[in-house]
User: What shape does this take?
Amino acid sequence: MPIEDEIKKLRAEIDRHNQLYHSDDHPEITDAEFDALYARLKKLEENLEANENSPTMKVGSKPSKGFEKHDHLKPMLSLSNVFNYEEFEKFEERIIKRINNKDITYSIEPKFDGIGISLTYDNGNLTRAVTRGDGITGEIVTENVKTIKKIPLKIEKEAPKIIELRGEIFFRLKDFEKINKNLEESGNKKFVSPRNAAAGTLRNLDLEIVQKRPLDVFFYGLGGHSEDFMAKSQKEFLNFLKLNDFPTNELITFGDKKHVKISVEDILNSRENLNYEIDGAVVKVNDFNHQNKLGFVSKAPRWAIAWKFPASEKYSKVTNILFSVGRTGIVTPYATIESVLISGANISNVTLHN
Ligand code: IVH
Assistant: This one.
């Protein structure tokens, strides 16, 4: 296929999967499959001029109908990926070149597999909770977010005039299982993953349903703020969050490049035992001055990277191979397997469409 045609096809395909993932909460492919399509498109676009309509230049998907929209003070961006230490080293080399300093401290954090949220506090009071949306404009979901009792309605200590606090909304695996069990018992469609359940709940228009589901949250990011906010690094920012009782994650550590390697491995090893889903680690330059100097490239900061983990895998035994006939007459083979618990879901059927 000519390169231009493949690019066109990939862009359309990625746009469609973005819509399915971000707006419809019903993905058709795994994150790893999506990453592969995305990487292929990035590679093909390497020698072309930037095209602002390409999904590689856009963040997420447009906000959906139903909630009022609001612009973020500071855009909510995405992260570039690395998959191994060599790629991380290249990321660090680029940083060292730009800021002319070899002693860089990083924060290493789990990459929570939930839904990004931005909370605005005006004179210390929670006034708005907004989803990421297209990165510039999101949906106002304040009432739904306020059902999370852990979220302080007021910043009591050292509150600046205005500040956006960013975090991730998610479900613990046990809670996800309960929600799906209830949905099944009442004859409704189940969610495919805890992340989709969180997305579907956060953007649910029925507050009564949201109240019944125990959404949870971790905070990890600073958005826009007034000049009176004093934190000078991610570490100081996290201390500010803790001081004010915002839920933060206990696996976040700080250190140099060597520490990054150890800490990412620690996070990967703890993955199995966590009661919530993560899909990688996020490594951030700690110093805010350094972050500002590094800035952004298209939709992602130069000072942070997502270190993606492979999709969770489990072994099981195939017990039967069957065929299902779709509405349009298409026949798809699938296997039944001995049931295994993976990412909070009991899997007993797997598609063989590939
Ligand atoms: S920092 C510009 N830290 O991952 C900085 N993001 O792919 C970007 N995420 O939209 C955000 N855990 O929803 C950051 N510890 C963490 C994170 C994290 C999960 C999500 C977040 C973001 C997406 C980027």
User: Anything to note?
Assistant: The chain is about 30% helix and 25% strand. The pocket of 2-(butylsulfanyl)adenosine is lined by residues 77-79, 109, 111-112, 116, 132, 168, 220-221, 282, 301, 304, 306 (CB under 6 Å).
